[in-house]
Design goal:
Layout (H helix, E strand, L loop, with lengths): L30 H29 L7 E3 L4 E2 L4 E6 L1 H11 L6 E13 L6 E12 L2 H13 L4 E9 L9 E9 L4 E10 L3 E9 L9 H15 E3 L2
Antiparallel strand pairs: 1-10, 2-3, 3-4, 4-5, 5-9, 6-7, 7-8, 8-9
Length: about 240
C-alpha cells in the first residue's frame, strides 16, 4: 500500500528567527549636491558677515538716540497754543525727501502752528523739525535756514548768522525773511538749532509788529526756550 501523500509545507515567513532580510544601503549622496550645499552655506555665512559690517559702518559716527522732538499743547509758558499739527502731512513729505541724506538718520518729522493766545489773527509761531541722529550739526542747521530762505514767496532780508546766546549748550543761527500777503508784507525772524538728536526751525510772527521786534538775539533766546519745551528724553 503506497504511503499517504505528503502535505505541502505551510508558507514560510520571509525571514527566520526574527532576523530581518538584508536591507539595501541607501544610494550615495551626489558629491555635486554636497559641494553645492557646502558652498551655499559658506556663502550665507559670508553674506551675513558682510551685512553686519555694512550695518556697523553705516552707524559709525552717529550719536546715540536719546531725545525726541514733540509738539506740546502750548509753548513759551502758555502764550502760544497749538492750533494745527501738520506732522502727518507735511512731516511725512519731509521724511520722504530726507531719505537720501547720508549724514542724518531721521526717525520722524514734526510740523506745528501755534497761535498767540489761541487767536490766529494776533500772531503765530511755526515750528518745523526732525528728530533722529545727526552727524554734521553746523551743516544741518545752515541747510535748514538756506532751504527756508529759498522757499516760494520768501525773501531773505537779513542773511543767516550765528547769534548763539551766552551760556547756551547748542548753537543758534537766525535770519530774517519777508513774505508778501494779500494786504501787506510781513517780516519775521527764523532761527534754527541742531543737536545730536533734534533739529528745528522756529519762526515767530507777531502781526502788526514793528521792525524793532525783529531783534535776532531776542529771537535766538525764544528759540532756546522753544527747544527746552519741545525736546524730551526718550523713555
Amino acid at each position: 500500500m503506497p504511503p499517504p501523500p505528503q502535505q505541502p509545507l505551510p508558507p514560510q515567513p520571509s525571514h527566520v528567527w526574527d532576523v530581518p532580510p538584508m536591507l539595501l544601503p541607501p544610494p550615495k549622496k551626489s558629491r555635486v549636491g554636497l559641494v553645492i550645499g557646502i558652498a551655499g552655506g559658506a556663502f550665507a555665512v559670508v553674506l551675513a558677515i558682510l551685512v553686519t559690517l555694512v550695518l556697523i559702518e553705516a552707524n559709525i559716527g552717529f550719536p546715540e538716540a536719546r531725545f525726541t522732538l514733540t509738539l506740546p499743547g502750548t509753548l513759551l509758558d502758555g502764550r502760544y497754543e497749538l492750533t494745527q499739527d501738520l506732522s502727518d502731512s507735511v512731516g511725512r513729505k519731509m521724511e520722504r525727501n530726507s531719505r537720501h541724506i547720508w549724514d542724518a538718520k531721521i526717525t520722524h518729522a514734526v510740523v506745528g502752528r501755534y497761535s498767540l493766545g489761541g487767536a490766529p489773527n494776533r500772531g503765530a509761531l511755526l515750528i518745523t523739525g526732525i528728530y533722529g541722529r545727526f552727524k554734521n550739526l553746523d551743516k544741518t542747521r545752515s541747510d535748514a535756514l538756506k532751504r527756508d530762505g529759498e522757499a516760494a514767496g520768501a525773501t531773505v532780508v537779513v542773511s543767516p548768522r550765528d547769534v548763539t546766546p551766552s551760556g547756551a549748550d547748542v548753537r543758534i543761527s537766525c535770519e530774517v525773511l519777508s513774505r508778501k500777503g494779500p494786504a501787506s508784507t510781513i517780516a519775521y525772524p527764523v532761527c534754527a538749532w541742531a543737536d545730536d538728536n533734534t533739529s528745528a526751525l522756529v519762526a515767530e510772527m507777531v502781526f502788526g509788529a514793528a521792525n524793532a521786534d525783529l531783534d535776532l538775539k531776542s529771537a535766538a533766546r525764544t528759540t532756546l526756550q522753544v527747544r527746552s519745551e519741545t525736546v524730551k528724553a526718550i523713555k
